[in-house]
Amino acid sequence: MPLSAANIPMSLCLFAAYGACLWLAKLSRLTGYRIAMTCAVIVFGGGGVVGNLARFIDSGLTEYANLSAFVLAVTINAYGTLLNVRATLGLFIPPSKK
What we know:
With 98 residues, the protein is an all-alpha fold. It has a domain at 30-88. Helix content is 72%, strand content 0%. The protein has helices at 8-26, 30-59, 67-88. Helix 2 runs antiparallel to helix 3 (67-88).
């Protein structure tokens, strides 16, 4: 049984794209960074938090290895979503210019 119900190839592609978006902040492209983080809130919050909860309500733990895997999936995605909300709202320290 897989650890979670996530589509692994799709998840890897999403995280690669997300990682690339983090460079926008490093390059001081803060407007683009905040737009990208808004998209991340929708994708990770919608698919990662709401999607996992809906899947659990619909079919219980049948798509998860165990309860711990489900709880970790929701917790990790919720934490990431909260950080992305902070970024979207501009509640971060901009990189210093050297």
